[in-house]
Amino acid sequence: MKIVDKRLRETADVINKKFAKVNEENRSEVSGEILSHLRNFCETFMYKVYDEENDADIYQTQDNLTLVRKYIKDKHYDVWKFHSLLDSSVGHMDFGPMQSEALTLKYIPQLIRLKTFLQKQCGIGVLENIDKYPLDLDTSLVSFYEKILFVLLHSKPGSMQMTRNQYFVKKRSMKYINGHIFYEYVFDVSDDRANKFNTFVCYSFKNIRFDYDLKLLLAKKEITYLNTKIFINVIYDYEYSIRPCAFQNLLYLINYNDEKCRRDKEYSALMKTIKDKRKSLVDLIDSKKGIFFASDGYYTKFIINIKKFLRSGKIGGNLIRFLLTDMRNRTIKAQAYKPYGNMPTYNGEFDGLRIRLASKSFELMPFAFSPKEARPSLYTLFELYDAPDVADEILYHYLVNYINTNNTLFVKPCDIGYSDEKFIELKNRFNEKLLRINSYYSDHRIIEISGYYTVESYYNSTQNVILEVIKLCKTKNVQVNNDYSENPLLSAAQKNILSKSLKNSSVALITGSAGTGKTTIIKEFIKNNPDKRILCLTTTNTANNNLKIKDFAGDITYKNIAQFEKEKNHEDCDIIIVDEASFVSTDSIEKIIEVYKSSAFMVVGDPGQIESIEFGNWFDLLLNLLKGKDVVFSLDVEYRTKVVELTKIWDEVRHGKKKNIIELLSAYEMTEEISDDIFKVQENEVVLCLNYDGLYGINNINRYLQASNPNDAFEYQ
Q1: What is the Cα–Cα distance from 357 to 376, expressed in whole angstroms?
Q2: What pTM value is reported for the model?
Q3: How far apart are CA 348 and CA 630, in angstroms?
Q4: How far apart are alpha carbons 87 and 81 in whole angstroms?
Q5: 511: closest CA among 649, 650, 624, 647?
Q6: Rounded to an integer, what distance in angstroms lies between the CA atom of residue 287 and that of residue 84?
Q7: How wide is the angle at C-alpha 439 spanned by C-alphas 433 and 445, nearest 5°?
Q8: 39-57 pLDDT tens trace
Q9: Each residue's pLDDT tens digit, 187-230
Q10: Is the dihedral of CA 410, 414, 417, 421 positive or negative?
Q11: 428: Cβ contacts below 8 Å, ≥ 6 apart
């Protein structure tokens, strides 16, 4: 047996034994054990590929590794990239169980590709137990994906025409079914307006490696699932199609010329190079060989100018490298410094570049902070940057992620997979680095309060909001009309709440679950106070539209909070209505109160709804702190259903009592096996979906329902 074959089997067997013992309960712990062996396996794999293609069974020495890495980089760039990623992450850092599981989930698709390569190209079977590491824990989906695999194996496109529109990959996941690898993609339309209703799901054998804008060779194919015929989108080919304005806006950030660019022959050559060589713009710019086209046009100059800037070592390099990974025009524009009034043309606090100051935290500590309108994963960051000593930044990354995800202000080290000793060590290192880099970011320090930890800015913002609201409780800034006795649209409970709201204070906190009449209360309050200047703030345009009153002649303005935050000047208002309060971040409500502290506030929401994406537990805190005061009001009567059992289940869902939900569903006989019966919609039936994507997401369910609809289809173009 060859030296390399023996070594390959030894390293693969170690990992395979770890896979054999994995289950849902121990997956986090076993993941840490798997991670510790991945680099050795990937390294041995590279030696095997080198041997197979050069007939050279060589020893694994440092000199030989340099030779092998150079060869693999030229011939199998994806493998070289994966090894480099492992070298910068698991090769130099220790991760806790939670972090290990997250990284292993990211690395499993790469391992399956290496396994498949060895089987097909070398006739070597390894990692037989990799299927036991659950990529998708829902086994009921297997038959669905088997039908999709059949279509991928046996179908052809009806046309060779690429789509006219451009799209980008919003989410991707690899499927490993019956020895075949294929991919499930969620695409969105490539423009500067985010819209969750534009997303659609596609399937393909093509591994679309980069997140750049695309044109697709797309076809609809029919499958039968649960006795229902539905159409799926199949991708047979693709081409990269980055918007030219993204190149122009990126150069704007670093003060290069503003000449117009377009889709010319050089542009097409660059897009083809990215696809054929499977190298991103970052890879091409980092390449020592460079890239040359027949013409010396705009895109050649782009590569040269960006390379020159990155090699200069100037501040801004980390941000530019990240923006090059997907060239999303919306994200690029979000980093731009936009002077107004007497402000200088260039940002002196960012080394004279046209980059906003808010992006500087990411530039200085990319593993801890994020650019505006972007949330890079650790996986992406490890691919982009050398990371020999960023354990403290990663601690902050996990701490902030936990606070935002769980909507909790305080965290114990064990909540994010750290021992007390390790947490304190990394906390101190992070705080020292933060102050050393720039004291401007001191409010991002990790602080300890009674054995719990949080971020100082989160703590201060929460405290400020609470103190300001308490002041509003003790003042009366605006006189409102509290007489609703003759209003026929309101229940007795709603009239009681409105008759007391803002009567003796400048704040009213109104809470209630979906269907209890919160929107009705807001509309009737507005109509009852037509002489007041009212500003309605929500997190979405949809919520704003729900509050609008037809033919209302009063002085009222509707805005979403993102729009409010972009404005430099704010008009005077008597009353501020904040709807869907649980969606509003603490940072946003702090800014709103600061601007309108002399106004009155009606704050409406449901703390049992999905929380703010950013940290925002202020509403829940205020409801608890001010409970029993005459500023907190609760709507308890459900108007959307009179079925008591449904109301009880919805209450358990709102309060997150998973065990109780399952017990009640069983007791009320509201559960059944998934079959074609669930798609036989009765008259006036409402279908509730938990998400937009996936087999049982709203987009897929709509396809099922449309497929069984005998009426003519009207497709949105």
Answers
A1: 19
A2: 0.81
A3: 50
A4: 10
A5: 624
A6: 15
A7: 60
A8: 999 999 999 999 999 998 8
A9: 999 886 766 667 888 999 999 989 999 999 999 999 988 777 88
A10: positive
A11: none
